[in-house]
Design brief:
The chain is mainly alpha-helical and 198 residues long. Helices cover 68% and strands 0% of the residues.
Length: 198
Amino acid sequence: MARPRVREQLLDAAYSLLQSEGISAMTTRHIANCAGTTEASVFNNFGDKAGLLYALVGERLPEVQVVKAAVSADPKGDLANWLQQVYKAAELFYIAILPLTASLWGREEFIGGMMGDKRHPLHSLVVARFVEFQREGELASTADAEALATIVLGAALHNGFNLVAQGQVALDDGPSEKLGRVVMTLLPLLVGEHTLHE
């Protein structure tokens, strides 16, 4: 039976280990020892190591909160800047979680889509925001909100993966103050030209 206090201790210990010793130190036994509890408590509270990692990503990693804040931020009439901030935050999120979740790729949870909406609802958050912008007239009503979210998050994931795997990004926007290339390419498809230059 899951116990909230023990669950929090396990998540704290897992995050602390991740920060101090890296992913390789994160065995269920080591996490439990650092939390001052038994390995069985990991399984009682999270089902398995995958469940612990999902919870760690969703509840402890600061990058998760940053990307959620970026998605829910008020664009203040500047959809381009909002989109760029979401893209950048998503890229940092993927850079943080890719090494952490690599051992889970190919598992049934990923194939069945559990990683998508139930445990990490980034895509659905972005879709909901695009739909909201459409209702407010800030985003073209003809834009496909789901496809757009997939493109933005997919580009962020692609760049994040390349950086983690190869140490370089596929599409480098550089330190320029200009809007990122992904955003600048998408924006004319989403809003009218008058909005771009207002």
